[in-house]
Amino acid sequence: MGPNLIALAIPLFFVFIGLELLVAKKRGLTVYRTGDALADLGCGIGQQLVSVLLGAAVLSTSYSFLYDHRLVTLPEGVVPWVVAFFAVELGYYWWHRLSHEVNLLWAAHVVHHHSEDYNLAVALRQSVTTWATSLPFYLPIALLGVPLGVFGAMLSLSTLYQFWIHTELVPSLGGVEKVLNTPALHRVHHGVNPRYLDKNHGGIVAFYDVLFGTWEPESEPVVYGTTRPLESFNPLWAQVEQYLDLVRLARKAPSGWLALKVFWASPAWREPWMGAAPQRDFAKKYDVPTTRGLRRYVLSMWGVMLVGVFSFIMWGAALSAQSTAAVSVVIVLSLASLPGLIEAKPWAKPLEVARLLTVPLVALTLFIYR
Length: 370
Hints:
Oligomer: single chain
Number of strands: 0
Number of helices: 16
Mean pLDDT: 92
Strand content: under 5%
Number of domains: 3
Low-confidence stretches: none
């Protein structure tokens, strides 16, 4: 599929996050909280690692197979790019919409919606299973005769575009919002306000929302997050919590049919045997008080990890299986221990000590096995 454009853009993501922080400070706004931002970045790290180790290979292999059996052969030139643009956006729209309407798909996508803040870091908050849930919506594009490289570039373009729309600092852009997705439209999408639920599913474009009746302009202040709160800054827990809840509900189901329905029904579906859903206090965001010293330590460790993760994503393909496993272990430990320190979990300090002790072992593994 060519170079990983998302990975190449990572340094720019952090440049723009820094600019957002500066603009917000100048306006007297607080748009970031340490724990929430770390959870955002941690989910993004996990998603990129899974994509590098598994998702990209599965997508390339399955897409190439279908392309070899394509129904249409497109002429060279601009035509494949035009078809790819509209097809990728249509596939994204229906994946995104159904990810809000089907529990099993929502279990993956909900990771992106857990944050109760709205900033550029939220764009990086992604599920490690999104590649699998979105695959069926993109593979038909191969049958239309769009080459893998063109498809991959257009998919990356759509993903990169959606980074900038995750901010509160850009106002509504008026009439253009019937055509293009904008920060105001996507703020609506992230809202739990009753009128905002399950609206604005577009990627780059908004006209599919207009066409299919899910377009909604921003008309009242947005309350961000999910109706059922996660109440955790742990990015590993965020990835699995919704799946575990579905399994729990399926085990409680009074019949096999209802157990199956748990996975394919709407997230809004609720019956008495399920018990009451946890209620969120929409006037208060989940947070944990921390000291300045602890925040400095965690952020410094996080910065070191980000450099290592970026290097691993860019050049990890050349590593041996032993080195890849060693690096993956220390990254996973970091994703658990550092947010755990922020949340003052009793297990976080011992885990952090264990994490620090693994670093020399990882360095030794890299030296021996390269």
